[in-house]
From TrEMBL:
Name by which UniProt lists this protein: Sterol-binding protein
One CC-aspect GO term: cytosol
Family matches, as InterPro entries: SCP2_sterol-bd_dom, SCP2_sterol-bd_dom_sf
Alphabetical list of Pfam families matching this protein: SCP2
Classification via PANTHER family: SCP2 STEROL-BINDING DOMAIN-CONTAINING PROTEIN 1 (PTHR10094:SF25), STEROL CARRIER PROTEIN 2 SCP-2 FAMILY PROTEIN (PTHR10094)
Domain SCP2: 39-93
Domain of life where this protein originates: Bacteria
Length: 93
């Protein structure tokens, strides 16, 4: 699955949420996904929080096969910026 397919999968959840912050999933060469409030896109932009991970790890995170806490503790994901924004993502994922 590519970044665009993930965006389309997440779009209904993001648009119907009351998420009030901005977060970027940076998958390196595979691209970025930016959630800003109730909008989602693949256009890079400054955000409150950036989560860096591989595309495979993002897919595993979204499918529930990868624990966000375990991924963070083992260095599979890195968080820059406001950590509380990353923790608030549980309502979307």
């Amino acid at each position: 699955m590519g970044v665009q397919q993930i965006v389309e999968q997440l779009r209904p959840r993001v648009e119907s949420s009351d998420f009030g912050k901005s977060v970027k999933f940076d998958t390196g060469g595979d691209g970025v996904i930016v959630i800003d409030g109730t909008t989602i896109s693949t256009a890079d932009a400054p955000t409150d929080c950036t989560i860096s991970l591989t595309l495979d790890d993002l897919e595993a995170l979204l499918s529930g096969d990868l624990s966000p806490t375990m991924a963070f503790m083992t260095g599979r994901i890195k968080v820059q910026g406001d950590m509380s924004v990353a923790m608030a993502l549980s309502q979307l994922l």
